Amino acid sequence: MCWNKRVVIGVGIVALVVLAADRSLFGRVWPLLAVAVCPLSMIVMMKAMAGPRADRAHGLETTHPTGHDEVTGLRAEVDQLRAELDARRSGGTGPAEAAGTLPAK
User: Fold this and answer.
1) Based on the domain organization, do 39 and 10 belong to the same domain?
2) Mean pLDDT of all residues in 98-105
3) In total, how many domains does the chain have?
4) What is d(CA 22, CA 1) in angstroms, rounded to the nearest whole number?
5) 52 in the same domain as 14
6) What percentage of the chain exceeds 90 in pLDDT?
7) How far apart, in Å, are the Cα atoms of 9 and each of 4, 5, 18, 42, 49?
8) 75 with 51, same domain?
9) pLDDT digits (tens, 9 = 90+) for 37-84
10) Contact (Cβ atoms closer than 8 angstroms) between residue 78 and residue 70
11) Nearest C-alpha neighbor of 83 from the set 72, 73, 69, 97
């Protein structure tokens, strides 16, 4: 089924308001409300699935690091690891050995 609970509750509230306001109008409106539940549910679910991507598309700030910041950090870590590997291959003491984080040879 394609029914979202929040949409069904909202449509139910609208139906109750129409029923309380004018019983004759309710007979003409309820088929439209019944048919509208599925498309409205799909819209709500699509917006929910978009999540943070939709916020960024509309210019809202997020607390997550941007892709560029993450790539920069990863490149720095790769450079550090390459320097340590080169130091180990050349027989010198690398930054990790000097800090005591690697086991002695």
Assistant:
1) yes
2) 52
3) 2
4) 30
5) yes
6) 15
7) 9, 6, 14, 15, 20
8) no
9) 888 888 888 888 887 665 555 555 555 567 788 888 899 999 999 999
10) no
11) 97
Nearest of 48, 53, 51 to residue 4 by alpha carbon: 48
Shared domain for 50 and 71, answered yes or no, is no
For residue range 21-45, what is the model confidence (pLDDT) as tens digits? 888 888 888 888 888 888 888 888 8
Quote the pTM value: 0.41
Question: 51: which DSSP letter?
Answer: T
Residue 8 amino acid letter: V
Domain that holds residue 19: 5-57
Query: CA torsion, points 33, 36, 38, 44, in degrees to nearest 10?
Result: -110
